[in-house]
Amino acid sequence: MTALGWPAYVAAFLAPLVVAWLLTPVMLRLALRRRILDGPTEEARKAQQAAIPYLGGVAIVVAFSLLVFAAAALDRAVSVLVQLAVLLGVGLVLALMGLLDDLRGGLSARLRLLVEVGAGVAVYANGSGADLQGPRALDVVVTVVWVVGITNAFNLLDNMDGLSAGVASIAGLSFGLIAAVNGQFLVAALAAGVAGCAAGFLRHNFHPAKIYMGDAGSLFLGYLLAVVGLQLQLVDTPPVVALFVPMLVLGVPLFDTTLVTVQRLAHGRSPAQGGRDHASHRLVWVGVPVPVAVCLLYATGVALGWLAVLLARLDTVSGLLLVAFVLTVGTFLMGLLSAVPVYDNSKQRQVMLRVVRDHEPEEQAS
């Protein structure tokens, strides 16, 4: 693809933003008319008090798809057209699977995993997979694990008003900046497009949310960001350091997924079981208001994005020291959040309740 200037990147961000911004209210009215609603339940992952319409993910998918069509029209190279077609086609399959689950529910975890693994294989076959300069089988495994992991991480992160869309927009902008600086014009434009369609939807999804993206939107955004992360080529960055750049950009969903997976296993729960035990829920549990909790995670995403930009410019020793520092801070924060007693069978919860009872003032006799 020919070199693009900053105005083109701004257009790649603003065009899907406007489309998603305008289309989301249309999908909201359609969801209300068709009674496509997400009602509050005891097991719900989202912090909500009333039924909220779905279908916001459709607006995200349409907005990004139009950007891909525009990019294909501007660059008629056969290799680019095939790559864009496969990229979008696989994303549409995942979005359709998520939409079916939103509308009907009941899709088995095995079927979802099978489709996601197929998406990872398709990404590698399309020439967009990992290239670790080692055995091809290792590249395939890493590609599939990364695509499945990040896709599901954003699905899990969609647990509070505006959280997944906002983090996706921040990650897209971070990837776009890194790719543009490294001369990857198509990757930068696609990353800006992901950020734009997520930001346009966020206007209607931030607390109090009027509409949810559903699995259709979260799987689609997670998949796109996974592919963009795989496509980064940092020519002046040591390979061992470059591996950690996309991990830093996507640090918030990776942190949240690791937290809930470890904690659910530690408390005898299935990692696939939903619940209000994510990082955002734990912040709210200790008294942080919902919009503040979401903004704290936004700020974390911004900080990690800037650290990723810095990491891409460092040598091996400095880069690994920065990665070690981030991992140390992340482990410390995970320990703090793990101590929040969100589970009924948590020992910390029982101790906390006992301490509270011991210090309650005795009722005065009337």
What does this structure look like?
It is a single chain. With 366 residues, this protein is mostly helical. It has 15 helices and two strands. It has a two-stranded antiparallel sheet with strand order 1-2. The radius of gyration is 21 Å and the shape is globular. The N and C termini lie far apart (82 Å). The mean pLDDT is 90.
Question: What is the topology?
Answer:
Layout: H1 6-34, E1 37-38, E2 52-53, H2 56-74, H3 78-103, H4 109-125, H5 136-157, H6 163-181, H7 185-205, H8 214-231, H9 239-242, H10 245-249, H11 251-266, H12 279-285, H13 290-311, H14 316-338, H15 347-358
Antiparallel strand pairs: 1-2
Helix pairs in contact: 1-2, 1-7, 2-3, 2-7, 2-8, 3-4, 3-8, 4-5, 5-8, 5-11, 6-7, 6-8, 6-13, 7-8, 12-13
What labels would you give this structure?
mainly alpha; two-stranded antiparallel ribbon; 71% helix
Number of discrete domains:
1
Would you identify the regions where 5 or more consecutive residues have pLDDT less than 50?
A: none
Taking strands numbered 1, 2, ... along the chain, how are they ordered across the largest sheet?
Answer: 1-2
Measured by DSSP, the beta-strand proportion falls in under 5%
- Could you describe the largest sheet, including whether it forms a barrel? 2 strands, antiparallel
Distance between the termini: 82 Å
